[in-house]
Amino acid sequence: MKSSPHRPSIELLFKRGLGSAEIARRLQISSSTVRNVVAAIKKRGDASEVKKSGRPRSVNTRNTRAIIKKRIIRNDGLSLNRMASQLGIARSTVQSIVKNDLKLKSY
């Protein structure tokens, strides 16, 4: 989930005493976004983002996905095996990027 660029505005308006519905109306954003940010303010005291837990992506990065997408669009006849070996990553990783991230079907 991406963080809202409205976090500072929501925090300011909430600390001024406005309710979630009024903040959502003024900023023209969804009330659920406002409620989530307000809940974070109540829990932690501010609206700053919390570092995500879990293992970071090391191979399936934005850059790798872009390279794979460009090669597929270019249609140079590369198999997923060959593309994986040229990139130095596992074939299964290339396959999951194509299927899950790029929403394409390999055949």
From TrEMBL:
UniProt main location, coarse: nucleus
Annotated signal sequence range: none
Domain HTH luxR-type: 17-44
GO cellular component: nucleus
Superkingdom, taxonomy of origin: Eukaryota
Cellular location(s): Nucleus
One example of a Gene Ontology biological process annotation: regulation of DNA-templated transcription
Protein's name in the database: HTH luxR-type domain-containing protein
Organism whose genome encodes this protein: Caenorhabditis japonica
